[in-house]
Design a protein that fits this description.
4 helices; elongated; Protein Yjbj, Chain: A; single chain; mainly alpha; 140 residues
Length: 140
């Protein structure tokens, strides 16, 4: 059975616990991968457990396959969540945009129908803003 050394190395921190569960007599030192040498790891497991090389390689290959499917499931779930969040954001953005447009149109109608009052209100707001800025600058 061909064992994918790259996949095992990439997932080793997760797989190590499962290997220790299966073969409890292994220590953390036994489960070290030195220089990416998976064959050495398999040989160490074989010598400590008496398990056949082919069975060890098969078990490690099955673990990496399971780990890969869990990762792809998690990635799919995250992608789904992001897609739903994006849809909700677009819906809410559309609602806010529509409300802002309605308020703007209402404001324009108010100014068109009451131009003198609108000019007086703008003058009053400008006067108050000027006083606030002037007082703020004086107090420094």
């Amino acid at each position: 059975m061909a064992i994918n050394a790259q996949e095992i190395q990439g997932q080793w921190n997760k797989l190590r616990g499962q290997v220790k569960e299966k073969w409890g007599q292994l220590t953390d030192d036994d489960l070290q991968i030195h220089g990416g040498n998976i064959d050495q790891l398999v040989g160490k497991i074989q010598s400590k457990t008496g398990e056949g090389r082919e069975a060890i390689e098969k078990y490690l290959t099955e673990l990496t396959a399971k780990g890969g499917s869990v990762i792809s499931q998690a990635a799919g779930a995250v992608g789904n969540f992001a897609h739903q969040a994006g849809d909700r954001f677009r819906d809410q953005y559309g609602n806010v945009t529509e409300q802002a447009r309605e308020r703007f149109d209402a404001g324009q109608d108010l100014v068109r129908h009451n131009p003198a009052q609108s000019i007086a209100a703008a003058f009053g707001v400008g006067l108050v803003a000027g006083l606030v800025v002037g007082l703020a600058l004086r107090s420094k």
